[in-house]
Amino acid sequence: MDATNARAEVFPVGPPVTPEHQVGRLGDIERVAEALRGGDHIVLSDVRRAGKSTVALGALDLLGDDEPTPVIIALDLHERISSSQQLATEIARQVALQRSRTAVAGFRIRRLAFRLWDRTRDISIPGVTDQEDALIAKGIVELISPDRDDVGNVAAALQGVERLAADRATHAFVFIDEAQELAGWPDAIPLQSELKTRLRTVGRRTTFLFAGSHPSMMARMFAQGGLLEYDGQHLKLSPLLEDLARDDLRRSFRELELDVASRALDNFLIAAEGRPVRLMIAANKASRLAVETGQTLIDAALAAQAIAEARDDRFWNQGGPSR
């Protein structure tokens, strides 16, 4: 792996961060995973770029180690999914993918949630061949009949999730990212009625995890009398713990064969103002500058230059503070 790709993997800017490269969020990841294991539906709301997708996908990643292996559905409504029909099709696609032994063998179970979530953003999954995609397409047709209405398709697709979990004698976890988008769809009310029914079903095998970057809208959707009213856990991310963030940053820099001075870490944390994405941007810039200048130590001067560049990044000011 070249230096650019290694830096993008260790300090990604934009996509969710895998658990081994997250900064200061392991506690939240474990907390969400345990709540899901306990059968609680979860609503995770916070501002953009606070780390919700990282935490949610990281929790599902941990659950991927459970035996028997759970069924995982991961959907990002911010990109290509904007109707009930598209939602049903993507759920059916992911069910068909996980029924295919050949496709699942193409990548480790861990990272499954991240790769499925990427797929809803039109990012291909390594290990899935054109032949497998054809089999997956056939599975979609079998699972959701084109003569059903849109909401009926969602009901059939979610029933397919339940059947797969039953066949495996395991549980299913459905993650819906940017869930506030559901409120704006033309068929929002019947779709949410279907979801509400499933949230309240006794003896279910499926647990839902919703994340959204508009806390007030999410609160209205899931509050008493709201379109998705139900009894579950409403969580916010914890404040970024600086000691843990320092340790995580040092570990990640070492992976790139770089050392970092304590004062440089101080500067990164001050500039980030509690936002993990800012730490990622600044660290990414610093590692690039270190390689370009031949330095193996990221000192305060190099950190200051990296922070100055980071402030010009388009992601720097997206979303509010995560405190």
Structural account:
The structure is a single chain. By secondary structure, this protein is of the alpha/beta class. The protein has 2 domains: 25-235, P-loop containing nucleotide triphosphate hydrolases (Rossmann fold); 242-310, Helicase, Ruva Protein, domain 3, CATH 1.10.8. 52% of the residues lie in helices and 9% in strands. It has helices at residues 3-10, 26-37, 52-63, 84-99, 101-105, 112-119, 130-143, 150-168, 188-199, 215-222, 242-255, 262-272, 276-293, 300-310, and strands spanning 42-45, 71-76, 172-177, 206-212, 233-235, 259-260, 297-298. The strands form 2 sheets. It has a 5-stranded parallel β-sheet with strand order 2-3-4-1-5, sandwiched between helices. Strands 6-7 form a two-stranded parallel ribbon. The longest helix is centred in the middle third of the chain and has 19 residues, at 150-168. Mean pLDDT is 80; it is low at 319-323.
CATH class membership of the largest domain:
Alpha Beta
Low-confidence stretches: 319-323
| CATH architecture identity of the largest domain | 3-Layer(aba) Sandwich
Secondary-structure class: alpha/beta
Main sheet, how many strands, which sense, barrel?
Answer: 5 strands, parallel
How many angstroms does the end-to-end distance come to?
36 Å
**Count of DSSP strands:** 7
Round the mean pLDDT to the nearest integer and report it.
Answer: 80
Major sheet strand order: 2-3-4-1-5
What is the 3D shape? elongated
State the CATH superfamily name of the largest domain. P-loop containing nucleotide triphosphate hydrolases
Determine the CATH topology of the largest domain: Rossmann fold
Q: What is the quaternary state of this protein?
A: single chain
Radius of gyration: 21 Å
The helical percent reads 40-55%
Q: How many distinct domains?
A: 2
